[in-house]
Amino acid sequence: MDNLARVHFPASLPEAADILRTRPGARLIAGGTDLLVKHRNGLLPDVTDFVDVSGLGLHEITLTEGQVRIGSACTMTAVAGHPLVRERFPALVQGTLQVGAFQIRNAATLGGNVGNASPAGDSIPPLLSLDAAALLFGPAGRRTVPLAEFFNGPGKTVLQPGELIEAFLLPDRRTAGAFLKLGERRAHAISKVSLALSCWESAHGRHEVRIALGAVAPTVIRCRKAEELLSAAPWPPATDLVAKARALVVETARPIDDLRSEKNYRRRMTGVLFGRALERVLV
Amino acid sequence: MPAVGQSVPRKDAWDKVTGKTQYVDDLSAPGLLYAATVRSPVAYGKLHGLDTAAAAAFPGVVRILTAKDIPGRNINPLVLDDQVFLAETEVRYWGEPIALVVAETSEAAYAAAELVKADITPMTPVLSIRDALKLDAPRLYKGDNVFSSYTIKRGDAAAAFAKAAKIYEREYETPYQEHAYLETNGMMAIPGAEDQMTVYGSMQCPFYVHDAVSQILGLPRNKVRIVQTATGGGFGGKEDFPSVVAGQAALAARVLGRPVKLIFKREEDIIASSKRHPSLVRMKVGVDRDGKLVAADITYYIDAGAYATLSPIVLWRGTVHALGPYVCDHVLIRSYAMATNKVPCGAYRGFGSPQVIFASESLIDEIAADLQIDPVELRRRNGLTLGAKTVTGQTIDQSCGLSETIDKATAAAEWAKKWKPPTARTGKVRPGIGISTIYYGVGLGAGGKHLDRAGASMTIMKDGTVFCAVGNTEMGQGARTVLSQIAADALGAPYEMVNVIEADTAYVPDSGPTVASRTTFMSGNALVAAGRELKGRLLPVIAEKLGATSPDEVDLVDGFGIRKSEPAGTKIPYLDLVKEMYQRRLLPSSFGWYVAPNTEFDKETGQGDAYFVYSWCTNVAEVEVDTETGEVRVVRITSAHDMGRAINPQQVEGQIEGGTLQGMGYCTMEEIRHDAQGKLLNNAFATYILPTMEDVPELRPIIVEHPYSEGPYGAKGFGEVPLMGIAPAIANAVYNATGRRIRILPIKPEKLV
């Protein structure tokens, strides 16, 4: 009943994991841009404790062993502005820059956006399009989960009790890419539909392509058939192939009607966004 | 230099931007308690009783109050006197207040409110205008679900249609609009000795609140005092609803004998407070071969919600404005405020007119397209000019800037260069340009004339500073600044020495509500009267000092006493005159009273002088429409306004900018949604979508001044006008870009592709 919660400031990952494990009502908090609003509105009745991650050293973006490692507590602004990201992952730059508005991007973190597991989270499609994996820390140690296998449904992930996201690991390569979204206004807009497309040269005349859709299924989803079609064909793809891929993207979407938009509109717009993302990449 | 006409900085600007301003939730009092509202979980039903045991046992809870605890009358006094402060035996909308939980902390009050269980037998609710009109619809008030209706009948519309070259019939619909003021509703009531009750809070209309608190407590008026605190926006949303909040807070304070604060959370404010009425408008207009309007038959329905509140007056304004600023001799307009089981709608900037303006200005555009006439040209052919008569038969006898606003807005927007028919637009992203021309009846008009008076007191303090109290409120619109400018010039004192304070019912008699763009005009005129009276006492002193034979030969202007015949001659500083005033023991105070010019209308035909004067406006909207996604980007809006005289041009421009954005939100994104049982679904800023800074187009405000002889320094009123015609201007621009005519607002991308 009492909506006051205890806030913990652990100094190490094991300490944080321990609090999470021993207190079932504990939730991680970083930027708090989503959690605090929910908490204030009484939507987190079971939450008794917040575990602040700011003291865990998760703010770094580094390049090691063929991977760009992005600490889960990096803000959207930090991710979008980092040279390692800017030089390699345009889809992620565009995605993180379309989350919320300036003030939110200065506080909200990549780990929070992913951990929140909204199908409309704007950083998620770019990460999926870049073959990102989540490095998890828990009572049993560390493990790595491909982000494409991380989500079980809206707000649901494979995280086990006591487990948290330590970092995101992205293969070190230069990619071309785009993230496009349609929202109800130009800022502070939750996506009605979003699409990330990333690609990179895999062999001479061939590009490996990844396409991820947001807000058109219970989780962010990949368009694997369209990806395979485009990845197997000569690059740049021929017009008829693009049309086929577009049809496959539209088929992948499983949208619903809700307050923000309509099922049919969302489905059709996945095709429009795919066409536009591909155009941008090919320029 | 006179203060009027100068863009002096706002009196309240510095404190507001530095965070010093105290709003009601910043205030406290010893022994303060906090109230939270228990709300109906159904839209319509019989209320048998409440189970309050669990809530009463909650730690910190002091008392749970229901309608039975009301010592006075459980009716918020307004037009039809139907809205209860707390439900008694039935609930009429989802979220209707049923009980108040009062506790030592706000958290405890809200938590305990969740524990109150209402015993309700639900009934089938009526949830839309169309449902309310059905012959077999539940009768919410025994009658026909019509709270009020008006008819305007001029000439013989039926006969004129028979002779018309072409007739156009269209139906338009508009949604709810939420005010979304920055500060939510809130009140703090403090009981005093000898049964006194003082209520502080956020409001537009202290005298409505005064009536309400006096009524719910059953206290005489001189025991009740209402003090307006700094008010973070109103836009009409704080016209009638704060009376309910104040009445409830005062009830708790009275019963418990302790100060009580009732502050709404945003989510609660959206559920509980008034909104712009949704509407259904059926337009039928006949034209001759030149596109001149020869006949009109308009039926206008508004969704009033569960109680009539302000709907009868809102409906009157909409009825008068239904055809727009055009000449037409044969008109039949019928309007109806429909009862439904939703939150009562009320005032919102434009007050029943933006709905009909969307319909009529869209139809004018449809006629122009069909006749292949430039929409600007069609408006020029039909627009009201000096000497012409409105739909109510009122002759426009002065201050008519309509054609000048058309000239200036279209010139600035380069209409002639940019306009071409939709068939000539190509490409994925298409530009479009659209226009609306509107008029606005200033003040309460014939529908509310018994309230149309205002008072002002003025005192010159010993140091020469001037203290003014008025009965209209500052709610963020700049009233205190503009009124200080008027007061300074009326008295002849330097502007810097003049201040107008926030409204307090202890200082000024009932001056009517702060609505209908009437504050500059009404309180301004009251201050002019007060200032002139006070100045009249100083003129003999000036005459004596300057050796003039009569006070008529001298004047007090801009802080100096002068001889009228030699304005550059000897000058007596204002402060010297103040010293003389106090030495001679002259009365340093005055009181101004102003009664609005007469208005009237015939109940049967609606004919008469509906409003004492009109403001005029032309908007030109430019858009880009993405034909693949349906997204509309509003690129630029040029608005030319005739408000008589711009007392403070910067404030005028600010009003134009703010109103334009609200109009843009109304047109392109805002709507309230309910589920099939009448529960309001989007009561948060995450789901009620408003424009943000990123959506702001280029705004070009243009001031046109056709002074009004009765106005303070020629000013009319215009605060509402900037919002009123924006939706059709954008809708017409979208049509111009795409050839698609959207007749149901908002224009969401989903409707365009």
Describe, in plain words, how this protein is organized in 3D.
- The complex is a heterodimer of chains A (283) and B (753).
- The mean pLDDT of chain A is 96.
- Chain A starts with 5 loop residues before the first strand and ends with a helix.
- Chain A is globular and about 60 Å long.
- Chain A has 283 residues and is an alpha+beta fold.
- In chain A, α9 runs antiparallel to α10 (239-252) and α10 (239-252) runs antiparallel to α11 (263-282).
- Chain A folds into three domains: 6-52, Uridine Diphospho-n-acetylenolpyruvylglucosamine Reductase, domain 2 (2-Layer Sandwich); 61-171, Uridine Diphospho-n-acetylenolpyruvylglucosamine Reductase, domain 3 (2-Layer Sandwich); 177-282, Enolase-like, domain 1 (2-Layer Sandwich).
- Chain A has eleven helices and 14 strands.
- Helices cover 33% and strands 26% of the residues of chain A.
- In chain A, the strands form four sheets. In chain A, strands 4-5-10-6-7 form a five-stranded antiparallel sheet.
- By secondary structure, chain B is an alpha+beta fold.
- Chain B has three domains: 18-123 and 185-263, Aldehyde oxidase/xanthine dehydrogenase, a/b hammerhead (Aldehyde Oxidoreductase, domain 3); 279-446 and 602-752, Aldehyde Oxidoreductase, domain 4; 453-595, Aldehyde oxidase/xanthine dehydrogenase, molybdopterin binding domain (Aldehyde Oxidoreductase, domain 4).
- Helix content of chain B is 28%, strand content 24%.
- Chain B contains 20 helices and 26 strands.
- The radius of gyration of chain B is 27 Å and the shape is globular.
- Chain A binds chain B through residues 1-4, 37, 41-42, 101, 182, 184-190, 259, 261-262, 265, 268-269, 272, and chain B through 58, 107, 110-111, 265, 267, 628-631, 669, 673, 681-682, 684, 686-687, 689-695, 749-750, 753.
